[in-house]
Design goal:
- The protein is 45% helix and 3% strand.
- The protein is mainly alpha-helical and 125 residues long.
- α2 packs across α3.
- It is globular and about 40 Å long.
- The relative contact order is 0.17.
- The structure holds a DNA duplex (13 and 13 nucleotides).
DNA sequence: ATAATGACATGTT
DNA sequence: TAACATGCCATTA
């Protein structure tokens, strides 16, 4: 398994129940701020021990493209079951539920201090 | 090695 | 608001 994939899995597992995180956020926490699309590619193969449904589009909507075991209705259902209010058109108030890691959590992702500071500014942590 | 493929993000229209 | 264009980069073929 690639290092990139392992980092993504670790990060997604750290996202608390009832909160969501954007593909871009996960990529940024992995050290590759512009690899959002790759995060989606990896989520496609996740098992149930990884809360893939908490990873959403930054514009506040469920943007999953259906595959053999998951589609928009399923992701919405899982989110709703955790308390995230998802509308019929699969949109929701992302800022209300967005995962905001503590500085300590960011450090656990093994990033450089300067990069961590940049993230704190970017995501207002 | 080279090229195509996106569960994305952001800036412009 | 919403559609469109462009940049991105790990994976696959």
């Amino acid at each position: 398994m690639s290092s990139f994939k392992e980092r993504i899995i670790t990060i997604v597992r750290s996202v608390p129940k009832g909160t969501v995180v954007s593909y871009g956020q996960v990529a940024a926490y992995a050290g590759l701020a512009r690899a959002a699309r790759q995060v989606g590619f990896i989520m496609r193969e996740m098992e149930e021990d990884v809360p893939w449904w908490r990873v959403v589009n930054n514009s506040g909507r469920v943007s999953i493209q259906g595959n053999w075991n998951a589609d928009k209705p399923l992701q919405s259902k899982l989110l709703v079951s955790e308390g995230v209010l998802v509308n019929d058109d699969f949109t929701f108030a992302i800022e209300k539920y967005r995962f905001r890691p503590t500085e300590q959590q960011l450090r656990s992702y093994q990033l450089e201090d300067s990069y961590i500071q940049a993230l704190i500014v970017k995501y207002n942590l």
